[in-house]
Amino acid sequence: MKLQSKRAWQVFLAGVLLLISCDISTFAASPQIPTPIPGAISLLAAQTAAEAATETAALIPPTLTPTLTPFPTQTPADTPSATPTFVFLLPTLSPVATSTNPNPGFACDLVKQSPNDEAALNPNQNFTLTWKIQNSGSKAWDQNEVTLNYIGGDKFSYTTLVNLPNTVPVNDTVSLSVGMTAPGHSGKYTTDWGLDANNQAFCTLFLKITVR
Q1: Which pLDDT tens digit goes with each residue over 120-167?
Q2: Alpha carbon distance 114, 55 (integer Å)
Q3: How far apart are CA 120 and CA 156, in angstroms?
Q4: What are the percentages of helix, strand and coil residues in the chain, rounded to 5?
Q5: pLDDT tens track for 23-57
Q6: In terms of pTM, does the model score above 0.90?
């Protein structure tokens, strides 16, 4: 009898525990579902897109902006203005004896010459060259000191020295002649002579001819 009562009690307790275990879930608080915030999904999507754009921009290399280098500016060169040129035409003058004046007081002027410069002669033509000269210095030309000498250029004569016929006072004139022969070939020729005092030239004379 006691054994049966004890078993019955155990069965009762087991039934109570079973009921308690089945209904205990009714006493546990059900989990509360959070109420969504209005616009939260849109905000989250916008933030996600912004972060994605930032990461994408970080991966894209920066775009290089080309810079234009200006070409050097050329400064126009100054154009020189035309300078007028004046041409003076001088008349052709007769040959004038020149004084080199190594001897102070000695000077000369050519008064007349025959033949004149640019005279036309035949090949091997004989002629006499005469210079009429004035003493324009301050000293007389002593016939023992002053001579006419061949200096250079074309040689038309075998003679290279001519003595004065007389002493020539200041402002007086004297005529000196030399026998010459024109060259044998056509062309233009020049012979140079001069007065000499004590081995010092002071008066230069010349003749230009054309051989036909």
Answers
A1: 999 999 999 999 999 999 999 999 999 999 999 999 999 999 999 999
A2: 116
A3: 14
A4: 20, 30, 45
A5: 544 444 444 555 555 554 555 445 555 565 565 55
A6: no
Q: Whole-angstrom Cα distance, residue 185 to residue 210?
A: 10
Q: Are 101 and 107 in contact (CB under 8 A)?
A: yes
Alpha helices in the chain (DSSP H): 2-27, 40-59
Nearest to 130 by CA among 162, 168, 98: 162
Identify any residues that bridge with 177 across adjacent strands, giving them in sequence order: 130
- Short-list 146, 157, 136, CA closest to 194: 146
Residue 126: count of CB within 10 angstroms of its CB:
11
Backbone angles phi, psi at 68, to 5 degrees: -90, 125
Give the N- to C-terminal CA distance of the chain in Å, as an integer.
191
Residue 114 and residue 157 in contact, taking contact as beta carbons nearer than 8 Å? no
Query: For residue 160, what is the enclosing H or E element?
Result: none
Boundaries of every domain in the chain = 108-211
CATH fold of the domain at 108-211: Immunoglobulin-like (2.60.40)
